[in-house]
TrEMBL record:
UniProt cross-references to Pfam families, sorted A to Z: Fasciclin
Alphabetical UniProt keywords: Signal
Keyword Protein transport: no
Stated name of the protein: Putative surface protein with fasciclin (FAS1) repeats
Keyword Manganese: no
Species this protein is from: Lacibacter cauensis
Record-annotated FAS1 domain positions: 49-181
Secretion signal, residue range per the UniProt entry: 1-22
Gene Ontology CC, one term: extracellular space
Domain of life: Bacteria
InterPro entries, A to Z: Adhesion/Biosynth-related, FAS1_dom_sf, FAS1_domain
Length: 185
């Protein structure tokens, strides 16, 4: 059951990453002027992306995360019902890892290690920034704990800065990190 949950969490994380990276197709649509004016007059909020994976796929800054989620076969899991809170490292965060680390993690023989790292970025439940408290411990999908630090109004997760918060999807929420956080050994 734990393995299934972790698998589901990783799939959901991957789906978010895929969405944020712009994996969707573009379609051309036409509208008439009256319909456009009518819809502009009604202030309707845009629909939230369906999954946390969709958020990642839709972001050019998360293509590495999306690729990692795919390599770990977590897309389906993270596309599940959730809810999930995903702390999503940017491409720059992955680039800051020691040389060769990412390439090694993306190898098929490193799938378990990659999955462990990715699931360390996922927490069950939909935690908004306002729900996070200084010193709070968050149990991750991989079973380890992340530590929340809030200093001078800035939120950090295991020392990584939250650079964008509360990106809401139908199955959870995504917070963008400026570093890849690694489980303690």
């Amino acid at each position: 059951m734990k393995k299934t949950f972790i698998s589901m969490m990783m799939t959901a994380s991957f789906a978010v990453m895929l969405t944020a990276c712009g994996g969707g197709e573009k379609t051309e649509t036409t509208t008439d002027t009256a319909a456009t004016e009518t819809s502009a007059a009604v202030d309707t909020p845009a629909a939230a992306p369906a999954t946390v994976v969709d958020i990642a796929v839709g972001s050019a800054d998360h293509s590495t995360l999306v690729a990692a989620v795919k390599a770990a076969e977590l897309v389906e899991t993270l596309s599940g019902a959730g809810p999930f809170t995903v702390f999503a490292p940017t491409n720059a965060a992955f680039s800051a890892l020691p040389a060769g680390t990412l390439d090694n993690l993306l190898k098929p023989e490193s799938k378990a290690d990659l999955t462990g790292i990715l699931t360390y970025h996922v927490v069950a439940g939909a935690l908004k920034a306002a729900d996070l408290k200084d010193g709070q411990k968050l149990k991750t999908v991989n079973g380890a704990e992340l530590t929340v630090t809030i200093k001078d109004g800035k939120v950090m997760i295991d020392g990584a800065n939250v650079t964008a918060a509360d990106l809401t999807a139908g199955n959870g929420v995504v917070h963008v990190l400026d570093a890849v956080v690694l489980p303690k050994k």
